[in-house]
Amino acid sequence: MNAMTPEMAALKDRLKATWMAGDYGYFAKYLEAGAMEFLEELALKPGIEMLDVGCGAGQIAIPAARRGAKVTGIDLASNLIDQARERAQAVNLEIAFEQGDAETLPYNDASFDLVVSLIGAMFAPRPERVAAELMRVCRSGGRVVMANWTPGGFIGELFKTVGKHVAPPDIMPSPLKWGEEPTVRERLHKDIAELRCVKRNYPFWYPFGPKEVVEFYGTYYGPVNRAFGSLDEVAQESLRRDLEQLWTKHNTASDGTTQYHSEYLFVTAVKG
Question: Of 200, 197, 191, 181, whose CA–CA distance to 270 is shortest?
Answer without folding.
Answer: 191
